[in-house]
Amino acid sequence: MSDKAYFGRRYMLSASHRLHSDALSDEVNRTTYGKCNNAYGHGHNYVVEVLVGGAVNPETGMVMNMVDLDKTVENTVLTRFDHTNLNFDPLFVKRVPTTENLCREVFQLLKDALPADQLSYVRIEETENNFFQYEGE
Fold this sequence. Notes:
This protein is of the alpha+beta class. It contains 3 helices and 5 strands, in the order βαβαβαββ. The chain has a 5-stranded mixed β-sheet with strand order 3-1-2-4-5. Helix 2 crosses helix 3.
């Protein structure tokens, strides 16, 4: 039996993006990304879900202190991406800012900022119907 427990938390961020690849022709971009290829971009109110796991600390009874997780997510993800155009972030200058790619990048940023092996996954809801999840490699 594993002694691993999990703690998840949800965060909100609003950002815009344009789905467009310089490697594709304008026609292929329009066909591939549809209305999301609008030259002026479009925005989402993303819900970012972070799940951490590990042994329960016998002194605190917690996998991770919620205040510490909140500070890490605020400093690493929300401050960087909230109310921005993702296309202008250095992570997406040469990468299409799809929510799949955003999810992967948020995971990596948090993995680097959290204690070793605590991050289980990042899940991002783009709309009420679309969500994306990344668990690392």
